[in-house]
Predict the 3D structure of the following.
Amino acid sequence: MSAIFESVHYIYPSKVHALRGVSLEFRPGELVALMGENGSGKTTLLKHINGLLKPVKGRVIVEGIDTRTASVAQLSQVAGLVFQNAEEMFFESNVFDEVAFALRNFGYSEEVVRKRVEWALKFFELDTYSSQSPFLLSGGEKKRLAMAIILAWSPRIICLDEPTIGQDSLQKEKMKHMIKMLNTQGRTVLLATHDVEFVAELRPRVILLSKGEVVADGKCEEILTDETLVKKASILMPQLVYAFKRLEDLGFDSRVLDVDEGVRQVLKVLRHESV
């Protein structure tokens, strides 16, 4: 197992009921996108996986551990969370030590720490900032540093909260390949995001949340092409899906999520029209 939610409720001190009886199972090696409007419960759900939040009712089991009886430090070794606001993860004076901090706490030797930190910083193109304060980085660089902090110790479950915010197209492409790589290595990857185009390219399992409840759960190509479902979660369909929906009367199938698939449809229709 990776993570199981059993009728989980969570209410913030402000009395906001963020999760309302959520029951879900995230299987080992699964790639899942959590989507929904602001306040739908996406981030709250992710914070339950590494124990930052505990259910007020129900329970969460992560890698066989009941999060109600486990510390954040214990859970963090199996489930890493990259915050939406990357600065919330920073407290060291330089970028190198920021990535090294958790590794040292987990008891790795300094040689292993150095190698892992150097790999992570190079992968995210942050190696030239090694001795710089993390607070002086740009918004996109801070997000990549937060990713490097988590990936340096390579937990079995990786949770990403709005990973594409502040990233340009090149970094988004690199992040897409990184997520696929982690997933092919058997890691469970969960991302909370509004970026429907990014999700459409990844083709994960999609869970739609609204007002703390699950409104849909299924394959990306089924969920993101269903106009009724995406409206329930207050998100937009991918632009390609929207375009092909307007062409349905001409024989096009609107359940198309990538450009290559769209081109094949266009050529198919054109060939049929030319006969």
Observations:
- The first helix runs from residue 42 to 49.
